[in-house]
Every structure is written in structure tokens, then in C-alpha cells.
Amino acid sequence: MTEQHTPVGSGETLEWDNENRRLAMERERLRQRAIQYAQPVINSDELMRDARPLLTFTLDNERYGLDVALVHGVRSIQQIVPVPGVPDYYPGVINVRGQVITTFDLRRFLGLTLRQPEVPPGEAILVRSHQLTLGLLAHRVDGVVNVPATAIKSVGTLTYAHGVTEDHLTVLNLTQLFEDERLIVGADE
């Protein structure tokens, strides 16, 4: 009986019984494992200690996350009452238990293209920073997730964001956003 060789390409053959080839394959496998084992080990406890709790929400087709410490509540929007003479990123006000809250449309503020036909947001995330309370509009509030700080990659072109995660969650920097002078209506009058 003759030994069979399977053509592989470029003149090579697989020799299943060839001791040298078997040893070379074992060395390569060990080399690959050594590379994997050399990667720094991240303890899941350490990872979670460094995690940031974020409220995640969707506005149009974009996913956002924001620090839960700034969130004071989430409300369904029954009606937004328009206010004349304000920028378009302030669609109007809502009544939350007798308190008038200004709604804020992040899409319009950032100059993003609105989905057509436009579906009005149905929820307001009540956020407070710098003595300013706004109802941040959302199509859907997804919930709270813990995101490790190492998972948030900085993107220099996003002015009001800490960064973006691998799964395309934009982590908003509300503190920086609330420092924008455009949020104060009539400030330059």
C-alpha cells in the first residue's frame, strides 16, 4: 500500500503521518497559545469596579448612554406645548407633576438629519446639571447598563461625548453639553 498525499497548493502536500509536520503544527499551536496567554488578564471584578452605570436610550436610529447620576426620572410624553421664539432644539415644554420642564431635542441641537417620515419621540429623560433641568427626548429608553471605562473609546470629533463603545453606544458628556451657552435662551440679549 502506498502513502497518499493530498495536494494543498503551491506544491505542498499534507502528510498526516509525517512526524516533522506534526511537530511543526504543535509548535505553531503552542506559539499561538503563548500569545493568547501573554495578553493581560482583566479580572471581571476590576472591570466592573471601573464600570460606569449608564442609562441607555434610542433617538431615531442612534443609541446613547448618559450618567445615571444626572437622571431624575423618565416620563412618557403626552403633549409638548410649543413655546414661541425659542431655538428649534427646544420643541416646547411638558408638565411633570405641576412643574414645567423644557424639552430638548439632541438631534436638532447637534444638527443631525432627522429620520423621514419623522416619528415624534415618546419619552423624556429628566436630567439635571448646572441648575438646569431638561426633558431629553427619546424614542425608547432601554435601561441601565454598566459599561467599563476601558470600553469607551474617545472620538475627537464628538464634542459632547466621552466616546463610543464597540457596539456603537455614544456615551454623552452632559456636563460639557450643559456648559454650552446656546442652552440658555436669551443669554446674549
Summarize the structure in words.
This protein is of the alpha+beta class and 189 residues long. The protein folds into 2 domains: 6-38; 52-183, OB fold (Dihydrolipoamide Acetyltransferase, E2P). Helix content is 19%, strand content 37%. It is built from 4 helices and 12 strands; from the N terminus they run ββααβββββαβββββα. The chain has helices at residues 19-38, 44-49, 106-110, 174-178, and strands at residues 6-9, 12-14, 51-59, 62-67, 71-76, 93-96, 99-104, 123-129, 132-138, 140-148, 161-164, 169-172. The chain has a 5-stranded mixed beta sheet. Strands 5-8-9-7-6 form a 5-stranded mixed beta sheet. A two-stranded antiparallel ribbon has the order 1-2. β1 and β2 (12-14) form a beta hairpin. It starts with 5 loop residues before the first strand and ends in an 11-residue tail after the last helix. Residues 1-11 have low confidence and may be disordered.
